[in-house]
Amino acid sequence: MFCNKYMRLDSAAMRALNVMESKTDTNKNFSLFGLTNRTCTASLGRRLLHLWKKQPLLDVTEINKILDLVQAFVEDTGFRQVLRQHLKRIATIERLMRIIQKRRAGLLHVVKLYQSSIRVPYIKSALEGYNGEFASLIKERYMERLNFWTNDEHINKFIGLVEVSVDLDQLENGEYMISPGYDSQLSALKDEQESLEQQIHNLHRKTGDDLDRALDKGLKLDKGTQFGHVFKITKKEEPKVRNKLVARFVVFKTRKDGVKFTNTKLKKLGDKYQKILEEYKICQKELVTRVVETTTTFSEIVFEGLAMLLAELDVLLSFADLAASSPTPYTTPEITPSDTSDIILENSRHPCVEAQDWVTFIPNDCKLVRGESWFQIITSPNMGGKSTFIRQVGVNILMAQVGCFVPFDKASISIHDFIFARVGAGDCQ
């Protein structure tokens, strides 16, 4: 529903202006979306940018606020780069929350949400440290919400929950486990598991002494799903200890890579170890469910709003990065109310065309003023640039009403609630 908030763009205008990417594009700069998409979050910014391109704003005040924020990021390169570095570590919060809310999540999803959450205080600190011309606007737009979300009852509480409940040291090994210290039952099972591991290790060492074989190289301890804990010796070594094996052990598998055997003590210890391990896994699973359910409570209060704020920052930083890195500068458009109905562009360029390799774009002007030149007929030979000129006017207005800097020297653009475009030789008038 468009109401009075967004410009209306039909599918023909979207295609004519190359607003969105096409499967046939061989270069991302062929489309306006591809050109402006310099977002650095996993996909938060990209999704919001996709929405903004289809719904340019009609509110002059809101557009000018967005343009001022982009200006702040353009002018302060260090500020912009610090924020982008932090945003690069932000996961797809919206997707993670959907998985968690549907109770299909595991510790992997909780940890990814945690890894994004610990970046938020750094982003807040960077925004607080800005003291330029638009400091009051940044404070008004972002700081109140960030202060609320990062207090001890919200993100800090969630961070504390994860740091207490998850064994973060195991993340380097790719394992997502509940920390044994989080629960007394889990801690007791862990202690018993470690005790059994030590007893099995002691038995391994004693068996090596009995067989007069060095550990690991001569006598190995294997742990498999089929037989559990077993001793293993190479076939070459087996004849040297055959008599002892027959007398004291049970040999149950002989292969080219060696002989596997066990005894009563190892079998008992191995069975107990396996039982404790199963109990430990069950306890882990129950605790994971508890942690996921607790994480769900943070969803609506914190993470949904936080995702939108970070997505907006990502898009605005993307606009600023485009404006700052363009070989020919982008400038801030002057946005006027719709009742003025003027479009004045001086030395304007088509952003997608000038971004192509080996293109030197010749800037041109457009002046549509109420009561003077509301209607213009563009004529030229075939391939003379008529379509490009018409498109660039539409694209520049769309970019301005999204809140992006635009490729021209100077412009005054009144708010427009529709763009209609039928451009090209294949049009059906």
Characterization of the model:
By secondary structure, the chain is α+β, with helices and mostly antiparallel strands. 51% of the residues lie in helices and 11% in strands. It has helices at 11-16, 32-36, 44-54, 60-75, 77-87, 93-101, 107-117, 120-128, 135-149, 155-165, 184-211, 242-248, 264-296, 299-325, 351-354, 386-402; strands at residues 8-9, 219-224, 228-233, 250-255, 258-262, 334-336, 343-348, 364-368, 410-414, 418-419. It has a four-stranded antiparallel beta sheet with strand order 2-3-5-4, with helices on one face. Strands 6-9-7-8 form a four-stranded mixed beta sheet. Helix 4 crosses helix 14 (299-325), helix 6 packs antiparallel against helix 7 and helix 6 packs antiparallel against helix 14 (299-325). The longest helix has 33 residues, at 264-296. The protein is elongated. The two termini are 28 Å apart. 32% of the residues are buried.
